[in-house]
Amino acid sequence: MRNLCRPYCFSRHRSGRATLRPQSPVGPGDVVITLGARGCIGLSNGIVYRQGPFKVKALDTTGAGDVYHGAYIYGILKGWDMPSSMRFASAAAALKCSRLAPDETLPRLAEVETLLAQVRNKSSPINEGQSHSTGGDMD
User: Fold this and answer.
1) What does R_g of the chain's alpha carbons equal in angstroms?
2) Which residue, 34, 31, 36, 12, is CA-closest to 21?
3) Which residues lie across from 35 on neighbouring strands?
4) Other Cβ atoms closer than 10 A to 97
């Protein structure tokens, strides 16, 4: 899993989708790039998925990537597919960003599940030339 900045530094591509494909052969079969406030994009078995951000009033983004990574791994360990793990991780990171106090910033499982229930869009692959939201709000 990578942050948007690092792949772009080593890639001539200007879009997340174009950056994903060269990353896959040099590492694991699945690649996820976080895009901060723009959500995330992932590649699994040749299919590109895009997860939109969950709209929250962001108070502090410190540690949002760490929360995302932990929540994504939680999903994988639960046996979820990439789109489900991306959606869960994005919801967890959004909740973390909506909090300021250090002792209250990590969302509980029930809170993430509540946010996911409020946004019912399901995951879908991105076809060439098309962009599909996988849950959350996308531009």
Assistant:
1) 14
2) 31
3) none
4) 24
H and E: helices and strands count for the chain: 5, 5
CB atoms within 10 A of CB 1: 17
Max Cα separation, the chain?
Answer: 43
Residue count (the chain): 139
CB 91 within 8 A of CB 136: yes
Contact 53, 90 (CB under 8 A): yes
Q: Distance between CA atoms of 80 and 20, rounded to whole angstroms?
A: 21
CA dist., res. 130 & res. 5, Å (int): 24
Per-residue confidence of the chain (139 residues) as pLDDT tens digits? 555 444 444 444 555 556 665 554 555 678 899 999 999 999 988 899 999 999 899 999 988 999 999 999 999 999 999 999 999 999 999 999 999 866 677 899 999 999 999 886 545 455 443 333 445 543 3
C-alpha 107, offset from chain centre: 16
Question: Distance between alpha carbon 13 and the CA centroid of its chain, in Å?
Answer: 20
CATH of domain 2-122: 3.40.1190.20
